[in-house]
Amino acid sequence: MSSSILSYAGWTFLPNLVTGWIQSIYYGITIRAGDPKPQPGTPRYTKHRRRIHIAVIAIYLLYTIYEADYWLRQEGSFYQDLDLPVDVDEKKIKARFRRLAAIYHPDKAVNPEEHANAETYFVRLKSAQDTLTDATKRFAYERFGPDVLKWQHVSSIRDYILVGAQNAAPLYGGSVVVMVILSLLGYLQWGRYWRYLIFACLALVEYHTLTRPHWSPVLTKVLNPFLTTFTSHPPILPFQFLALAHKATFTFFIALGQLSPLFAPQDRPATSLSSGFDEQQLQRLEQLAQSTDIETGRLLALEMAPLFGDEAGQNDMKVRVREWLVQNTIRADPEVRDAMGKAMQKRRVGAPVGARQPIANRESSEHRGS
């Protein structure tokens, strides 16, 4: 229980702490001494931190599931105590118990300390034998775990299922209430659909596992064959499978809450406050632009004052301005000059040598002549 609390508490600070350490180590390895490192707040620094943070959360999620499985294996099961397969029959269970009882009987202990340990172990073996040889208790143990030995006033499979459902109801009811309240308060918005879907799937899997006479196909056809064939992991019982499913689900919800700021789209403000301007500053800038336009018009009118009433002079000024714009704006563009040169070369193919003067040289000479 304490390990589970520490595991959940670790989500509050470990991912951010480890992300900072890994990012510092990463920069120390990939950036040479003397070169500047990305500073906090820069796009490159933010991109690296986002990727490292996602990797740390994913690894910690897998670690918490492994940790839960480790403690389940440490607690063991009645099948492991008797060193029997999960599909063993009643006859082999009794024969195995008699053999182990002959070896570990408390009467064979030499000193009081060994006698106490042997007595505790013998009681566990006796509980395993009594539970697994009773079909009803075996059904309940495989689905609800060793807690069924403490249940009272239960004698049938239906009684065990009802008590197990009553024990599981607060978990599901409380979880739904918490998720709904957090959603109404504005939390858990990102990935909300997947949270409810996964939670509903968990409830459905648990209902199927607890009420069916046979084990789930996920265990009999996928997990246990893989574990027994490729690893030394003992077969997973239904109650252990449900415990891992609970741990994985709620840990995934926590991880999803920490991943949401990294994947959720950032809302952009409707106004331009993010660029450093407020509404008053924009109004001042607009007034400044209008006053600048008015002042420019006055200066232009002042420059054109000597030509007021002289139509010929105004026309000459317009022609000169037009030529100046063409010469300095259009023809000065490198792409325009290149296109005009290629066009003149194509048109003057076969012309005398003196007529093949490049257009840039001709323009410069004409400009000097003018």
Key descriptive features of the protein:
mainly alpha; single chain; disordered C terminus; 370 residues; 15 helices
Describe the structure.
Helix 5 runs antiparallel to helix 6 and helix 6 packs across helix 7. By secondary structure, the protein is an all-alpha fold. It is built from 15 helices and no strands.
Number of helices: 15
The topology string of helices and strands comes to: HHHHHHHHHHHHHHH
Strand content: under 5%
Query: Overall mean pLDDT score?
Result: 81
Number of strands: 0
Largest sheet: none
Determine the N-to-C terminus distance: 97 Å
Shape: elongated
Q: What is the percent of helical residues?
A: over 70%
Runs with pLDDT <50, length 5+?
A: 267-275, 366-370
Structural class comes to mainly alpha
Q: Which value, in Å, is the CA radius of gyration?
A: 41 Å
Give a brief rundown of this model:
By secondary structure, the chain is mostly helical. It has helices at 2-10, 14-30, 43-75, 78-82, 90-104, 112-133, 135-144, 157-184, 192-211, 217-230, 238-263, 279-303, 311-330, 334-347, 359-369.
List strands and helices in order, with pairings:
Layout (H helix, E strand, L loop, with lengths): L1 H9 L3 H17 L12 H33 L2 H5 L7 H15 L7 H22 L1 H10 L12 H28 L7 H20 L5 H14 L7 H26 L15 H25 L7 H20 L3 H14 L11 H11 L1
Helix pairs in contact: 2-3, 3-11, 5-6, 6-7, 7-8, 7-11, 8-9, 9-11
